[in-house]
Predict the structure of Exopolysaccharide biosynthesis polyprenyl glycosylphosphotransferase.
Amino acid sequence: MLRPHAPVAGWARRYRLTQSIVTTMVVAADLIALVAGGMLAFWLAPKITGFDEPLYPYGWIAVLISGNFFALRLARRSYDRPMGRGQDSDQGVVYAFLVAALMVGGTTWSIEPAPHFPAALAAGYIAGCTLFLFVSRYAVRQIVWQLVQAGKLGQRIIIYGAETETAERAIRLLELERLPYLSVVGIADGRTTRVAAEAPWGLPYYSGMEELRYRLGRGDIDMVLIALPNIGQERLDQLTEALQSISVDVCLMPREAMDLSSQYNVRFIGSLPLFALWQRPIRDWALLVKALEDRILAATGLIVLSPVMILTAILIKLSSPGPILFRQQRFGFNNVKIEVLKFRSMRTELQDPSGTDRTVRGDPRVTWIGRIIRRLSIDELPQLINVMRGEMSLVGPRPHATMMMVGDNYYFDAVRHYTARHRVKPGITGLAQVRGLRGEIDSVERAKRRVELDFYYIENWSLMLDIRIILETIFKIWRDPDAY
């Protein structure tokens, strides 16, 4: 949850930096990483290989690679939204560097072949820069966090919203960005009759424009975010006029951001601007990378985990009569139904293939071996076969049974835009599962939260995000209280 930073005074309050400085820090970190990687390679190569020729003639190649790297980053607008929505991800910065190195290396080789170019120098330069670029991202995050804690960096926001539900939705969308310098410090509304108790999450409430202007006049608020989905042009003009005499950013969160998608952007067909509300999330090269990731890791998992799977199959067969595998229809890619495989963990006669009856803690239908394999998520391992078939991915939104219920409603009726999570293949694990939303979903609010995390994953997919989720899943297997 986004929480207000502690009040600060003096220099920090008067000269507090906003998110623009983070862009400068990221650019500087990239430059330092490239210089450090080059210096390390030029220092180590002669010591390791005994190469005694002058190395400075090769320095211009490092300069060209660095120039191409920054050109690629700027062309993709990677510095526009630092630390947010995957635009400056660890994977993205490494990809840009490797592409730049490949472009420059291929060009220089084709113009003037260099058989005596020291391979150790090239390998050391690429490895060193890659390492330092990774480390630089961690260092920037730590520096940003320290500046935030010291009150010298922060983006403090007041949400101007008419309804509690709308304000909560805006706060949740901001929270999904996971930006350490972002802080919602209050809720405002034009109505003077609304009571402060109605403000969500215990935030201060400012009723009426005069009270809001008085609060903004203190000079420690950076932005007023207007979150009124159905605002008209006349009302918008009134608000901007009322706030234009105060030094504060006034921004509008479009209805599409709150109701349709947590990621939207402007695309162009030629010179014609289009407002993209929904789009294919994983495409082109990303689709190929995702497919290779799934096949390689699933095949490796089937080989490495085969002893565990064979032993599990034997114990299931000995523990109770019935088949080893449980097959259930669930929603797959593009809402096409697929048959998901699991190790059977319940008594055959008590199983519910429709998924209407949720599994609860201490469920009497679960066998003794079923409790063990469910606790350790071993029951999910046959889904590696689904991955090899191309029906599922290792990481993605969890596939739900077609008749799964939340409260008294079906999942797809209880949560708006639920089916949009099927724009990618379902996964054996997912972001929602490692963010504390594994297991029973017994409330609409919890269901909505899970779907929001699914959307975030879909719209911010990267190979590094998948790897992080896989590692977090392995770690959480041993300590997840929701696994039963």
